[in-house]
Amino acid sequence: MEMIVEFWSSHSESIIGIGYNALLCLIILFASTIVAKGVRRSIRKAKDRFEKLDATLVPILCATATYVIYIIGGVFILDIFGVNTASIIALLGAAGIAVGLALKDTLSNIAAGIMLLFLRPFRTGDFVEIGSVMGSVKEINLFTTILETFDGLYIASPNSVIWGSSIKNYTRNGKRRMDIVIGIAYSDSIDAGLDVLKKIAREEPRFLNDPAPETMVVSMAESCVNLQLRGWAAIDDYWPTYWDLNKRVKEEIEKAGLTIPFPQRSVHVVTGPGTIDVAEAGA
What we know:
It is found in: Cell membrane. This protein is α+β, with helices and mostly antiparallel strands. The chain has seven helices and ten strands. It starts with a helix and ends with a strand.
């Protein structure tokens, strides 16, 4: 007991100072956490108030703001303990170069993520095709872009891979053209087939007036004449309209008395000298 009293009497000022500094550190950490949460909350609310703030930016801004706040808090903590922050910053700069060389792939993902946010080839909710991957954009963070495919698969693709690939955005323009192709027999009237397609186009309310729907003969195939109906629809109406029209075009073509032929092939069989049998068969 006497040793404790003696130790306290000789080191009380140092102990109180250390305790005071430790308490300040805890307060700074607590304050940094509160401020970081408040900033993240403010950024999310700002997205709802400002239409120009893309939802894609929110995760990046939240993460960046959190890192900055904690770094500032760390500098204050080091300053409390009398650490020369200027020399530490210089040391961190040198270490940062070494770490940057070691983590060049990771840093390239960050740089690619920033470029994606500034140039905005896609936004959260857009349906895109990147390389061999297709899906809806769920999130862009510092390192990866999160996609969800048609069948509900979760895909996390590095930002550098996305930035280095061709990006096909099916949502950005707000509309999309569909091409409905139907074949009729060579003995059928082409004008009659085109009239059927024009009637369908006039009666389809989901088609846009600008650009206007078109009908045309697109090719002379082996067994049929291919007619095409082209029409534009809003993104939300594209697939329901496309599926409905494929069904309706077939039904209307047959109702008009036109034929949708099967592919035909003529087979010549040589059975003996000077003898040739000819048979026709569906492909």
